[in-house]
Design goal:
By secondary structure, this protein is of the alpha/beta class. Helix 1 crosses helix 2, helix 3 runs antiparallel to helix 4 and helix 5 crosses helix 6. Helix content is 49%, strand content 12%. The protein has a single domain, classed as Rossmann fold. The longest helix has 13 residues.
Length: 136
């Protein structure tokens, strides 16, 4: 099997969201993951981001269904750990376009030696060593 791909929140959100130009491309990525064509990993922050989005819209029941389905897509869901924090702080200092949420994902990726990420967020492309894969 190929190298694992970290999957960013926006891929999942576009895949299950309302009509958008990125919906079908992201849905295709999710389908490829579910069919075993892509080995997918992520972190707990991705689940928190999805949960918060739906919770803030008073759609928690929908979130529970989506999150339960999503958790089965991933070979690994990495926790956010204390050891990630110094790297997280450095990333925020070094890459001003990287949001705190994105920086924590990169910290987790780097600590697990992950190089590939599926995302719709162009800010990741500024981080050396990452191979950023955008929805087709």
């Amino acid at each position: 099997m190929s190298d694992p791909f970290f999957v960013d929140t926006n891929i999942l959100m576009y895949a299950v969201g309302t009509e958008h130009p990125l919906k079908q491309p992201c849905l295709k990525i999710v389908e490829r993951i579910s069919q075993g064509e892509i080995m997918a990993v992520t972190d707990t922050e991705v689940f928190q981001e999805v949960a918060y989005r739906y919770w803030s819209q008073k759609k928690w029941r929908i979130a529970q269904e989506i999150l339960r389905d999503f958790q089965h897509l991933f070979n690994e869901i990495y926790p956010i750990e204390k050891r990630h924090l110094d790297l997280f702080y450095d990333l925020l200092t070094d890459y001003e376009k990287l949001s705190p949420r994105d920086a924590i994902h990169v910290a987790v990726m780097q600590s697990h030696r992950l190089k590939h990420i599926y995302t719709a967020d162009r800010a990741f492309a500024k981080v050396p060593g990452l191979q950023v894969h955008f929805p087709p």
